[in-house]
C-alpha cells in the first residue's frame, strides 16, 4: 500500500470523502518542492479532527485538490500543560517552541521577566514554527502560542486551579515529588539566560513547586526539554 | 568583591599561585573582544583541577599572563555515562554535543547506523564545541569526544559491565524502571532521524533497557536531552 510521505497542517475540516483545497503556498510545496502529483498521498491534520490520508486529485501550479480517504490517527490532545518561557535569542526561541510542540505542551506562553531582553515577539512566526514542528513529530494537535505577557501580571491573574512547576537554579539536590501534588492543570516556568530575579524567584517559590535540573546551569532551551521530560514522566502522557 | 565575568578552559595545570599563559586566541578573546585588562578576574578550569579565579597580570595583544588566586569550585566529575548518537545535520549535531556537555555526560560517542547519512565528523570541531558548552554551563569537566564508530562494531566489542539504555520509538506506554537495573556505568543510545533499523533495534532490545519518550516522535536532539534527563533523574547526579 502506498504511504503518505508528507504531513501537512490545514485549516479546513477533515473527514472521509471531504475535499481539501490547497492554497498557493501548499500547492507550491507539494507539487513543485516535493514533486508530487495526482494519485500521490498526503497526511493531513488540522488540530481538531485527527489525521487523514488524502489523495491528490488535482495538482496545479497555484492550487490543488486533495480528497480525504481514511482517518489514520484520532485526535490526540496533549495534557493540559502550559510552557511559560522568557524569549531569548531568535534561534533559541524557535527551538523552545519546536521542543514544546514535540514534547506535548498545550499552550506556549512567552513572558517578560526582570532579566528578559526581548520586548516583543513575532507571535505569528512562532505559531507557524509550532505548526511545522507538529507536522514533523506526528502530533495531531498544534500548541497555542499566546501573546507576550509580563511575568508579574501573569502571576497576578493566575488561575487558582493551575499548578506551577518551576526550575530553581538555586536548588541543589532536593526535588518535590510531582506525583504527590497531582492535579491535571499545570504550567512550567523557565527563566531567561540570566535566571529569575530574587523577587521573581520568591514569588514562584511561594506559588509553585520547585524542581532541580541538576548541578550544571542549563541553557533555557535545554531546561525547557528537561523540565517537560520530568513533568511528562510523572504526570503526563509518557506513563 | 569583584567577580569573574568570563569562564575559560585552559590546558595548563591550575593551583593557588600558579601563573597561566594565554595564547594568541585567548588573549584576543579576553583583551580585545571582552575588553578586559590587568586586575580583572577570569574563572579558569582545565577539566582536572576544578575551577580557579585568576587575575589578569599582563594583557598583551598576542599574549597575556593570569595568576590563579583561589579555587572556586572543586572538580566535579559527571556520572560514568556515555551518550551514543548518530550524527545528523551539522547544526543538530552541534546541539547534541552542547546538550550532552550541559546535561553531564562523560563520553560522547558518535556512531554510524544503518540510516545515518553522515560518513564522517570533525572530531576536533565537536570537541571544541563541548569545551564551549562547558565554559557556559559552569561545569568543571569536559566530556570526551570519541571518533565516529559503526554501531554494529560498537556492540560487538561492548564492555560487559556497561548497561545500555535505548529509546525505542516503537515502545508506547511501558518503561523499565532504571532504578531497579542499577549499575554505575551506562550508555544512552539515540537513533538517527530515520530511527534504528529493525535489526539494530532487535540487537539493542536484546542487550539493553528500552525506555519510552512518549507518543510523539522526537527529533534526535530533543530525544538526547529527554533521555539524559530520565537517566540523570533516576541514576545520575540530579538526585
Automatic annotation (TrEMBL), chains A, B:
Keyword Cytoplasm: yes
Example GO biological process: rRNA base methylation
Catalyses which reaction(s): uridine(1498) in 16S rRNA + S-adenosyl-L-methionine = N(3)-methyluridine(1498) in 16S rRNA + S-adenosyl-L-homocysteine + H(+)
Ranges where the Ribosomal RNA small subunit methyltransferase E PUA-like domain occurs: 23-63
Protein localization: Cytoplasm
GO molecular function: rRNA (uridine-N3-)-methyltransferase activity
Domain Ribosomal RNA small subunit methyltransferase E methyltransferase: 78-232
Signal peptide boundaries: none
KW Manganese (keyword) present: no
Superkingdom assignment: Bacteria
One Gene Ontology cellular component: cytoplasm
Keywords from the named record: Cytoplasm, Methyltransferase, rRNA processing, S-adenosyl-L-methionine, Transferase
EC number: 2.1.1.193
Family recorded in the similarity comment: Belongs to the RNA methyltransferase RsmE family.
Protein function: Specifically methylates the N3 position of the uracil ring of uridine 1498 (m3U1498) in 16S rRNA. Acts on the fully assembled 30S ribosomal subunit.
Official protein name in the record: Ribosomal RNA small subunit methyltransferase E
Organism: Aliiroseovarius crassostreae
